[in-house]
Amino acid sequence: MITVEEFRQYGHSFVDWMADYFKEVECLPVKSQVRPGEIFRQIPELPPADSETIDQIMQDFQQIILPGMTHWQSPNFFAYFPANSSYPSVLAEMLTAALGAQCMVWDTSPAAAELEEKMMNWLRQMTGLPGNWSGVIQDTASSATLVAILSAREKYSDFLINETGIHHHKSFRVYCTSETHSSLEKAVKIAGLGKKNLIRVEVDQQLRMRPEDLEQAIENDLKNRKAPLAVVATLGTTSSTAVDPLEPIARICRKYDIWLHIDAALAGTALVLPEYRWMIRGIENADSFVFNPHKWMFTNFDCSAYFVKDREALIRTFEILPEYLKTKSRGMVNDYRDWGIALGRRFRALKLWFVIRNFGVQGIQDRVRLHITLARKLADEIRKQSDFELMNEPQLNSVCFRYRPARVAQDRELDALNEKLLSILNASGKVFLSHTRLNGKYTIRMVTSQTYVQDKHVMMAWDLIRRTASEIT
Ligand SMILES: *Cc1c(COP(=O)(O)O)cnc(C)c1O
User: Fold this and answer.
1) Fold of 355-471
2) How many other CB atoms are there within 10 angstroms of residue 242's CB atom?
3) Whether the CB of 266 sits within 6 Å of ligand 1
4) Domain 101-346 belongs to what architecture?
5) First CA to last CA across the chain, in angstroms?
6) Which is the closest atom of ligand 1 to the Cα of 304?
7) Ligand 1 atom with the shortest distance to the CA of 237
């Protein structure tokens, strides 16, 4: 094992490595090109009995591990969603690792609890959420949505399901659309509500929830003695960044007294721009909201910002108080272990503090605006090409399109052609894009919001896409 002085030396050289990595990452193959099992086979069957040097381990890291990594921080990464980091965020993560504190209650690190409260207030103001809502950092949006469903379940069962179990309770119903993220289905299963009670409301042409169909589904359920419990609206769906119309949905939820959870995991960061606040019009009638600074807001995974109107319902749902966790400060401060599922918590507020202060709100706005502009510009380029088809009207940071040469008429053939195009592009190592299906059609998706992406990266990718498409037979 190394000493603290050796730690100092390696620490400096590791930071040098990281800076070189960030400078060179755009030249590495974006998507890892290894085959299944290739990394596994290179790691010894048994752990070493004796100490190995950091130099040896680092050498293997470079030779074995790195080729098996997909480079999410490359500006040529356009797949899935951004999982952004940034220099200030990485620096803060180093400090968090060094402190290694467990931030489950105020007493176990007061600064962590108080900085978290303040950072959530900052984020609430930056995104224009209601001033009377409370925020807490969750590990992921999946956890936050589960927390929302469990809070709703308890609030609407007078906190009885926590006491007696779900068996004899009436049948709760949860509403979403075909476009809602799969984490909701998982939450409904974990919460014991049953997947059959997750109702998919119809969407319109642009894949947004149809409020009148939501109301119809609720009315039908009431007639059949079901109990409408929660609606999940999405701002920025995973496939096509569609935005559900919040205002009418929220009105319906108030009318029927149903918990409204808003999933803005990917696109919520756009709310830092005043011109995107229309997305949360009507939010005062909602109950909870989640967005991921660990996606688009330049903050390392994991950091998911969850906001809730009725914080008493949240705390009553999750509170536990074993003797060994009783503290004198209870009631005067926030003990965040009662605000979610896990007991142990990392000091996640620190990286937010570094990111927000070092970018400044203006700096965050500028970059988010640039990302949206890049998506718009790409869409304009696609529109100009008669052999490409734009599959969504990009409002945010993702563009959906497919290659559609005049010689191919059938959707099935087009699906195969685009699948082939995508696999050639990704095998080139020069870009990484992903796909989805929109209205049943195979669609290539390009997300233009990696932290350091610039116009030239998007234009190079578009060039490559066109050239590759024209060479496909
Ligand atoms: C990414 C995403 C999620 C899941 O986020 P995690 O933090 O990975 O759990 C949920 N909903 C939407 C709309 C997303 O884009």
Assistant:
1) Aspartate Aminotransferase, domain 1 (3.90.1150)
2) 24
3) yes
4) 3-Layer(aba) Sandwich (3.40)
5) 57
6) 7
7) 13
